[in-house]
């Protein structure tokens, strides 16, 4: 049991463990609450907004069929 305690003390001092844990926490948070972040249906084809570069309405832009890249990225 003392061996695990020593390993945890060393892990707390290691910056790589802290960074990896933080990234993992953000990914888990985004997966759990993805429905709140999605502004549009990722499968909806908006032909009026084809090939739009990133802006405040489409955070990652749109593809040739007008689908929002941000919502598609969050969904996966």
Key phrases:
single chain; 76 residues; mainly alpha; elongated
Helix coverage percent of residues?
40-55%
Rg calculated over all Cα atoms: 19 Å
Task: Provide mean pLDDT, rounded.
Answer: 79
Instruction: Measure the end-to-end span.
Output: 39 Å
Largest sheet: none
Give the overall shape, derived from the CA principal axes.
elongated
Structural class: mainly alpha
Low-confidence blocks of residues: none
Question: Would you write up a description of this structure?
Answer:
- The protein is an all-alpha fold.
- Helices cover 54% and strands 0% of the residues.
- The chain contains four helices and no strands.
- The chain starts with a helix and ends with a helix.
Please summarize what this structure is.
The protein is built from four helices and no strands. It is mainly alpha-helical.
SSE layout:
Elements: H1 2-13, H2 15-32, H3 34-37, H4 69-75
